[in-house]
Structure formats: structure tokens, C-alpha cells
Amino acid sequence: MTSQEKSWKEISPAGVCWKPSTEFLTGDWKTYKPIRDLEKCTRCLFCVLFCPDGAIHWKPEKEDIEFDYNFCKGCGICANECPTKAIEMKLE
Ligand code: SF4
Ligand code: SF4
């Protein structure tokens, strides 16, 4: 974002974003941040499927998932859908 551009906080309600979502980082929307317990996680990938922002990625080289906090909005859907309750939403 350049200094002349408005941030999402300055856009009026129902305003239309002028950029594709890949260029508009939405990570600072969140109040709560998903934190994963590596011991509880079975790498089932449910959270990857359910995340509405595509903010959880499967990393084949690590054989593990990774949160992209630049885009995670903190909605908590991943924590809600995780079958082993491996994700906890923590206040930022
Ligand atoms: S849904 Fe839960 S157990 Fe499955 S990959 Fe995500 S964090 Fe791990
Ligand atoms: S909190 Fe919401 S946006 Fe963030 S990773 Fe989980 S499902 Fe995706």
C-alpha cells in the first residue's frame, strides 16, 4: 500500500476494495490469532479446506501446514472445524 492509498479502516461501510485480495493484506483485521498445538495436529487438512481466506497452506517440503498471518482475518473457523481441537484462538 502506498502512502496515498486508504487503509481498510478508512473505507466506508460497504465500500468496494480497489485491489485484488492477493495485493490487499487483511491480516491486521484480526483480534484473535490461531495458534496450533503441533502435538494435537494430525495434518488432516480440514482447516486448509475450511479457511475462507486461503490463509492456511500445505507445505509439501515440510509435510506440514503453515498459517499465513498476512491474510488470516482471525475468524476462528479453522479452530471450530479442527477435529482434534489443535487450534486455539489467542488474543493478539
Ligand atoms: S484441522 Fe486441526 S488437526 Fe487438521 S491439519 Fe488443521 S490443525 Fe491439524
Ligand atoms: S482464523 Fe479464519 S482466516 Fe485465520 S486461518 Fe483460521 S479460518 Fe483462516
Characterization of this structure:
The chain has 92 residues and is of the alpha+beta class. The chain has one domain: Alpha-Beta Plaits, CATH 3.30.70.20. It contains two helices and four strands, in the order βαββαβ. A hairpin with a 4-residue loop joins strand 2 and strand 3. The longest helix is centred in the middle third of the chain and has 5 residues. It is elongated and about 45 Å long. The model has no long low-confidence stretch (mean pLDDT 91).
How would you summarize this macromolecular structure in one to three sentences?
With 92 residues, the chain is α+β, with helices and mostly antiparallel strands.
Shape: elongated
CATH architectural name: 2-Layer Sandwich
Q: Roughly what percent helix?
A: 10-25%
The H/E string reads EHEEHE
Bound compounds: iron/sulfur cluster
Bin the strand percentage.
15-25%
Task: State the end-to-end distance.
Answer: 23 Å
Low-confidence stretches: none
